[in-house]
Write a structure and sequence with these properties.
Chain lengths: 200, 202
């Protein structure tokens, strides 16, 4: 019964190996989906290309549906799956900084590495900026620590917060996604920029 | 039909199924009453305080002690290496990680036997394996490990080993419990964090 690794019960090198293999798969999928192009990613913000929304939202829904079914059939214990703790202020500010960096640079950290691996120079500068930001964060952490750890809510889940079952929440999210995809396609028609995704 | 529409219809269909499924986090007993009765009747579910003292002395990493008393009682004193899960908070999903470790033996203790036995029954009934009870609880621990003295004239090798084990555990118990509260809290917080250390990102 899953998850495979319960609180690092496997040797560290096996954990790292699993991460490495999943990382290769993730990077390959990102590249194949065209996410190594900053134009495609920035298109999400300008409305001419909403592939990012469709791919990531679909991935999230498929993972959600899959994990719910695995849990139902007793193959995955969801109570053992790690949930990131939620810090209100830090999440909002971090989200804004990440969003701003995303639209300015045209990558998120994962897609940046994916793009660098196929030799994109803009990704090299993007990652350099990312590392500079990480360095700055680490150096200024003592100053912002109080803010960073404020509003701690623990490992929150939306379905628990809404007081509904995970299955019902999944259904609501699927319907919301279908609606958003439809809206996204409309936006793509309205803001279309023919030829912007060509690399020439 | 467009492939995207087919996938959307499939996902919505699965979503409808999920919406009507019972909540997986709602806990229900996995063991049948007969199985539970048979397990609970066995003496093998108990560890004596001397056995627990040996675990402490050997720093046995395959044993996790669970202190079922209140947080205040736990802060006053506890068996070194134990984790405080107040009896009333037993079903909090945050603790389930302690009951689902196949390579670990989980040992419950309270002041006496009652809470530990009930906790054992609930957790084992919910499907956890390798759960045990420290027989007699902390009352027995104090009586046997903390307070007994050898009073005979000649000590046999067996008695010698037994008392040596108790004295050593007593020493560790006193050392850990004489730490200031802040250090103790930090020690246990660090231990919990270490267990939960697994992070992810985009």
């Amino acid at each position: 019964m899953g998850p495979i690794s319960v609180i690092s019960s496997l040797p560290e090198w096996v954990n790292l190996l699993i991460g490495f293999i999943i990382g290769i798969g993730f990077g390959f999928a990102l590249e194949q989906a065209g996410f190594s192009s900053s134009r495609k990613l920035a298109g999400m913000f300008y409305g001419y290309d909403t592939t990012v929304l469709k791919v990531f939202f679909t991935a999230a829904i498929v993972a959600l549906v899959g994990s719910q079914f695995l849990s139902f059939f007793g193959l995955l214990d969801l109570s053992l799956v790690y949930v990131n703790p939620y810090f209100i202020g830090a999440s909002i500010v971090g989200g804004i900084i990440m969003g701003a960096g995303f639209v300015m640079g045209g990558f998120c950290p994962g897609t940046g590495i994916s793009a660098l691996s196929i030799g994109k120079i803009d990704a090299l500068f993007f990652l350099f900026g990312g590392f500079a930001g990480a360095f700055l964060f680490a150096e200024t952490y003592p100053i912002i620590e109080n803010f960073a750890i404020s509003g701690f809510k623990g490992p929150m889940k939306v379905d628990e917060w809404m007081g509904i079952s995970p299955g019902l929440f999944t259904f609501i999210l699927i319907v919301a996604a279908a609606f958003l995809f439809w809206m996204a396609e409309l936006a793509e028609k309205k803001f279309s920029r023919p030829g912007i995704n060509s690399e020439n | 039909m467009d492939a995207r529409i087919k996938i959307t219809v499939l996902l919505v269909g699965l979503g409808i199924l999920l919406a009507f499924m019972p909540n997986p986090s709602s806990k229900s007993f996995k063991l049948k009453p007969g199985e539970l009765l048979e397990k609970s009747g066995s003496e093998e579910i108990y560890f004596s305080v001397d056995e627990v003292a040996r675990f402490i002395n050997n720093e046995d990493s395959t044993v996790q002690l669970i202190d079922l008393r209140t947080a205040d009682e736990f802060r006053t004193c506890n068996i070194p290496g134990s984790v405080n899960i107040p009896f009333k908070d037993l079903l909090n999903p945050n603790w389930s990680v302690y009951f689902n470790q196949k390579n670990m033996r989980t040992v419950f203790y309270g002041n006496g036997d009652q809470n530990a036995n009930v906790a054992w029954t609930i957790v084992t009934g919910l499907g956890a394996e390798n759960c045990f009870v420290m027989k007699g609880g902390l009352n027995e621990w104090f009586k046997t490990v903390m307070l007994t003295k050898f009073e005979g004239e000649r000590i046999t090798p067996r008695e010698n080993a037994l008392f040596e084990n108790r004295y050593k555990a007593r020493e560790i118990f006193n050392q850990i419990n004489s730490l200031p509260d802040s250090l103790k809290t930090k020690f246990f917080d660090a231990k919990r964090l270490q267990r939960a250390k697994l992070d992810g990102g985009c």
